[in-house]
Write a structure and sequence with these properties.
The structure is a single chain. 45% of the residues lie in helices and 19% in strands. The longest helix has 25 residues, at 258-282. It is built from 13 helices and ten strands. Helix 1 crosses helix 4 and helix 9 crosses helix 11. It has 340 residues and is α/β, with parallel strands linked by helices. Strands 1, 2, 3, 4, 5, 6, 7, 8, 9 and 10 form a ten-stranded mixed β-sheet that branches. 43% of the residues are buried. It has helices spanning 18-28, 49-59, 74-84, 101-117, 176-182, 194-197, 229-234, 236-249, 258-282, 285-301, 303-310, 313-320, 323-337, and strands at residues 3-11, 35-42, 64-69, 87-92, 98-99, 123-132, 138-141, 152-153, 172-175, 208-220.
């Protein structure tokens, strides 16, 4: 049977929560045979993640595939799942997150319709929800402000994304062949490569569909989570590595749709600003030097995109502003946007 979609679940010492993720897909899809789940154990050492993955495969061998690899990090695990993917479409769900059942049914119905009618849609976008563990609140991220609903469209039909708005990995369901066509450069042992995944393939996307459902539930708030402020500062070198890959991926302006180019510059600006803010929050000489190196590297790797970014007042502020002003601004933005 042709699989409609492959769900990738990269796992590293995930025994405490991965079952919830797997169950949400199985039960939400009514154990449909055209759904594939590839669980990748990324060299777990502290628990029985691999055994649990294999147990799921034994219970549902026509749906679940358990794969083991030596520890390579989140991005490498996602690419390992892609190697085993049999679905026309591919979507990653991190092992501590889950999917909403009704939204999953809506997504599957839409994907099946595309396949049945022979309509090629390269990217399907859905909403995601921040589930805040510390206070039980939720924050829905949708794209109705910028994307047409209920029809297939191209980059020329997208609207404006504000400073805090961009497409995250949680929102994206690619056609598998789009990801495979040019590859996705996922460096080993590097956090924040979800930005690479949500960015590098975009010039290979021609047709898009926005399905306005709250599919992905993103668990946020653990002290060790990669988006925690202290954790991000400790991994600033990895943020810089990701920023370079993103800068390299921006195509020449005249080679793609103008709105796609502007969006990619917009997303790169956000990432560079985040890197700069984290360096300023740290305030160590090493991190401040790394901040300057990130901007110089962008200018070398992609001068055209960087020239557009540095004209932005916010980018100029975080690049050259005082740590005191940036810390104050960051506190306000964090409170408004509700991130960790």
């Amino acid at each position: 049977m042709q699989k409609t979609i492959t769900f990738s679940i990269p796992c590293y010492n995930s025994a405490g929560y991965m079952d919830h993720c797997v169950k949400s897909i199985l039960e939400g899809s009514d154990f449909a045979e055209d759904v594939q789940i590839v669980i990748v154990d990324d060299g777990s050492t502290k628990d029985d993640t691999l055994a649990r993955a294999r147990a799921w495969q034994e219970r549902h061998p026509s749906i679940v595939k358990a794969v083991h690899q030596e520890n390579g990090g989140h991005g490498v695990a996602v690419m390992k799942a892609l190697e085993h993917a049999e679905g026309v479409y591919f979507k990653n769900i991190d092992s501590d997150d889950w999917v909403d059942a009704a939204s999953l049914q809506a997504l599957l119905a839409q994907l099946r319709r595309f396949i049945e009618l022979g309509d090629r849609v390269d990217l399907v976008i859905t909403n995601y929800v921040y589930e805040h563990v510390e206070d039980g609140t939720r924050n829905v991220v949708d794209y109705g402000f910028a994307l047409p609903k209920g029809r297939v469209f191209g980059w020329g039909q997208i609207g404006h994304f504000n400073m805090s708005q961009y497409l995250l990995m949680h929102a994206l369901c690619y056609r598998t062949d789009v990801l495979r066509a040019g590859g996705v450069p996922m460096p080993a042992h590097t956090f924040y490569v979800d930005n690479v995944y949500a960015y590098v393939p975009l010039p290979r996307v021609s047709t898009i569909y926005y399905l306005d459902v709250d599919l992905y539930r993103y668990f946020i708030g653990r002290d060790d989570q990669s988006v925690n402020e202290k954790v991000m500062i400790s991994r600033l070198d990895q943020l810089a590595r990701v920023n370079r890959l993103m800068a390299q991926a921006v195509p020449p302006r005249d080679s793609v749709d103008e709105r796609l180019w502007r969006y990619m510059v917009h997303y790169l600006r956000i990432n560079a600003v985040v890197c700069s803010v984290m360096a300023q929050l740290s305030g160590t000489p090493e991190h401040l030097a790394l901040k300057d190196a990130i901007w110089l590297d962008m200018e070398m790797v992609n001068p055209q995109a960087t020239a557009a970014i540095v004209r932005d007042p916010l980018a100029a502020l975080v690049r050259h502003g005082s740590p005191r002003v940036i810390r104050a601004g960051y506190a306000v933005v964090r409170a408004v946007l509700g991130f960790n």
